[in-house]
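Residues pack. Consider this:
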Amino acid sequence: MDYPVISLFSGAGGLDLAVHRCAEPPLIQDGTPSPLRVAIATDYCDTALEAFNANFRGTRTLTGDIRELESTTLLREAGLSPGEATLLVGGPPCTPFSKSGFWIAEKRNSMDPDASLLDEYVRMVRDAQPAAFILENVQGLTYRTHRRQFDRLIAQLSDLGYNPRWQVLVAADYGVPQLRRRVFVVGRRDGIPFRFPAATHGGVSERQDSSHPDRLPYVTARQAFVGLPDIPEPGELAEGEFAELLAEIPPGQNYLWHTDRLGGRDVFNWRTRYWTFLLRLHPDRPSSTIQAQPGPWVGPFHWQNLPASDGEMCARRLRVPELLRLMTFPDDFAVVGDRMSAQRQIGNAVPLELGKVVVRSLLEQMGLLESLPVDPPEREAVAVGLLAG
């Protein structure tokens, strides 16, 4: 079968990759054909769509601001009429709702003009009338600061008859080696409520311990990196103002190591910086969230120190292949441009295995895919083998 999908805010194609691989069982990438096809993908960023085209050859793409894109144009370019799309997917840019932007007054007060992109998403659902939709965004969208906008989003989608359901999912709970928290909003045109998939993994994170005898252990960063070649990248060493302090921080710790409460130097005051400041990756835990536009001292940094040209030991940044593994993307997933551009494309995406489990669950509930249970021990073995390449 060939069920068409409309993709908005596509970026390099994280959700689109999940659409293409949704027929595969969780944590397995065996090339099982998907019943879905992306009929059209759109984004305002040329570089992101260049990466998208490298990964999805032959898919129709449109570059432009969605606020200036007529829904009739989108449907015409996709070769679709209203009601013909099986699925509409997309994650409106999350900057207005991201915790990392709270220091900007207009974002803190939920006045960022880009927040209107949620309304544009609703407009496209209204005009395209897909059988179902999946919207993804940062957890901050559900915070009290932005609750008025979130409630309006849910109300608008409800008024369209889609009976939307939402939940904050942790990527690590589904076998992704990353503690990435994202809200998913899912609705069906027939009004049948979507049931979110149960978590399959658990363990210790920065905030809690979700270990459970019926869950598999979290996939760790060390497991994710198995089999990757040790190939240095230009600019990977963290040199400069905080280099010496960073190199002294143990795996799993951040700038708080250098306060009067822990074992480092007494340099910083307790809890005066973001958690990710000088954060080192712990090899035996999932990574913290990979950010799209980190500052020069924002982690996670690798747990490994390497010598600089002057012989001083420096922490190193994560390499692009490592970032791909932490997103459960295939090793051959294409990114375009320099290191900063690559991180932006990866950090803005949806982890493949998290997207897969949501898309697959929706298709199973719509009767478009048969349920395919996988025995947990088998899944764990497959996951380790997959992440080892």
